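Whether sequence alone determines local backbone shape is best considered at the level of individual chains. When preparing material for the folding task, we compiled for one chain both its residues and its backbone structure tokens. No coordinates are needed to read the tokens, only the vocabulary itself. For completeness, the protein is quoted in full, as a sequence line and a line of structure tokens:
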Amino acid sequence: MINRVPEYVESMSARKRCGVSLSLPVVLAAALLSPGFATAAASPVAAFPTSVATELGYPAGTYPAATQPRGDLPVNYAGVIATLNREIPQLMREGHAVGLTITLVDGNRTVWTRGFGYADREAKRPVTTSTLFHIGSASKPITAAAIMQLVAQGRVNLDAPLTRYIPGFRMRSRYPNNIVTVRSIMTHHSGIPGDLTSLAEIATKPDTHLYAQTLAALRSQLPTRPVGEAWAYSNLAITLLQGVIENVSGLSFQQYTQRYLFAPMGMSASTFNDARPASSQLATNYQVLPGAGGSISVVRRQREYVNIWPAGSVVSNASDMANYLKTVIAMGKAPTGARILPSQTMSQMITDQKASPWDVSFFKQALVWWRGYTQLSLGTVVNHGGDTLMHHSMTAWNPSNRLGVFVSVNTSTSTSVTSPVWQRAMSLMTQAKTGHLPGPAPAPGRVVAPNRAQLAAMAGSYANSAGIVKVAVQGNKLAITGSAQWPTAVTRLYTRRSDGWYTCADTGVSYRAAVIKGQQVLIGRAVLGYSGLAAVRIPAGYTVPPEWAARVGTYRVTGAAPTNYPVTPGGDPTESELYLHDGLLLLDSQVLLPSSGQQAFTFGPTPMQVMRDAGYSVEAAGTNLKVRGVTLVPITTTASRSTPATSPQAWEQFANVFD
């Protein structure tokens, strides 16, 4: 699972439920506090051998380190390619990936592009460098480039109110003087809800009106938090950038991006209109399904359409993405010779933006792009991943070494394939070009006797998007239970280290306490030093009003978009549960913080993902509940229920929905 850490933003967040249960993806969102993380977390260290010769596929002792070309001379990447040709098929087998495409770039040179496996397994159609893949949220930096073109022309001011460019934008009032700006959208600090289940964000049919529907739907929604308070990933906020581009340029979003981005970059096959290409040009969708006795099957799924275009609808191929990487590496100059962005504007796009005290994460937020992964000893890697329901991608580049990687798979194995492939490729290329080896994982501090008062102060109930986190004192150790609302929850013991972290012998995750703006939190750290917000303590004096206790029961979800892509073949669950556990109110897997007898708000961050998922409004409307744009109609009320009636394992592991 450590190989997924850089993509937690993509796979551990509040997911659009495609008209199903509003619970969060427990299997993914609980990774830092779940049994599954323990086994996988320790494995990635082995993925970074210490011998350059071994890394690059040369016989031991023959790697020509002293004579390796440097500077403007071409680097010999033969060993890199040989190693990846050998390792990628094995990673695909382990992750059950049907097809994969990859491209490597060094400056203005395409080092390698190749397809692996099948674009259509049943028809035996192989993946080629021209096969189109959904790149998901890796589309967002392309949208950002369009905005920054208008900024460079003086036609958009990043710090102006969004209403200057979209006069029809408004939400319900929750905070005074709460002004959404273009910059707050591009840094995910706008407070605009991330997704609404009432919208067909990913669907079985294309819908050209999702921007207008998003604008209309937000008028009935409350902000999740004040502008600028905390990072919270929002597909809907990025979708609003379509209106900025169209209203300022006078062109449709599709016209603008084709004319001023894809065409001048030489990306002739790429488009935000994912309904345009014929199915024969696209990689077919495949889903990995568990069976009886631990068996695995991979089934063919129908075509998916990402209808919130700016947030993730681009389809592209390895050849086109090579041109895109060359453009960003050249700081805005396309390989065609066209200047897409001024270099200073491109520099602005990848500059860290001011962070809130709540922004405790392993990456830095730039203007849509993310910066991070120095723990891999690769320098600062600028990147953005992307997940649709069945396709998973990563675009990553290193400005200082001028290296870039794009990889995408057409199977619901998520980042278990894309993450190790891109990290491995970037590591090998960096070594080939610079001779620099990845550093070792940070060694833990020595075991020390804990301060009993500090231990006692950490004990209590916390929350994250996977549910309740219980922290107790057991002897001289912390006993931590993640997703404690489930009968199958596992408790592990953590030992105090001299560096202030608490570690467990059978997991690669460490924890420490911190206080942010007066609230006690748990910070999690994984192998290689990735760290982020893991859970927030339940506020003192937490109570459940009797009105909410009387509403406990099972609800039917109504009002979801009928064309939403089903997460599971044959249809998704359409029920949601409100229940009490240990004095806390939960909706499916998320703790609710009641503000009155009629309103509550989701509480607790997605592990490693700051405050995404926290702050959604749940409102009573007669006997019904309204949340994320849909209505929950009561089926049964069971006030005594203390745990969910169904296990999250049944379907939530498939809820790896597009970001």
